[in-house]
Structure formats: structure tokens, C-alpha cells
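Hey, weird one. I pasted the L-dopachrome isomerase sequence into the form twice and got a warning about non-standard characters only the second time. First submission, copied straight from the form history:
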Amino acid sequence: MPTLNLSTNMPVDAVIASDILKDCTKAVAKIIGKPESYVMISINGGVPMAFAGSEEPAAYGEVISIGGLGPSVNGKLSATLAEIIETKLSVDGSRFYIKFYDVQRSYFGFNGSTF
């Protein structure tokens, strides 16, 4: 159920992508409190992106989950994901926005139905 969609203007090769997928999957599952088997992560690298009028390294993420999100969890996720993005992609935390969506079960589809 928890999903992280991540876009960055940095190129992302297969090795870096694999590391980010693993690290983000573990972080999202642990912090939200859901099994890793429910977590989906997508990465879009090399996306044309400007932040504050500059094309320096930047990233944008969205976390969607059925429950498990809130001010405390969102803060922990934001800090942890920013650290991963900075370590793996050299995107400074001050150039990374993340939006959190806590959705109702009926708004999340899976296996031809909703949860």
C-alpha cells in the first residue's frame, strides 16, 4: 500500500536505482509500520526540473499510504528519505520537497479491486 514516487533531475543508473529502491523500501516500511511486501517505490531520473530558478540537483517525492501517516511519521520519513537522496544522488535536503497523502481504502486499487 505505501508508495513512494520519486523524481529527480539527476541521472540515475541501474546500480544507484537499485540502492535507492532497497533503502527507500526499508525506510518506508519501517517508519510507516507496514510490511516491505506492501511497499512500492518508483524512481524517475533525469527529469527536467528547476528549484528556486536553478537546475542544480533537486528532487520531488510523493508518499501515498492507507493510514500510517501523520505529523510525527511524516517528519521521520522526510528526514530519512532526504538523507538517502543526498547520499545516493547528491541532492541537498534543502532542494527536496516531499508530499504526503493519507488515502482511504476505497481510493487505492490493487489486483483488479480496491482495498
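That's the output from the first submission. The warning seems to come from a hidden character in my clipboard, not from the data itself. The two ends are 9 Å apart (CA to CA).
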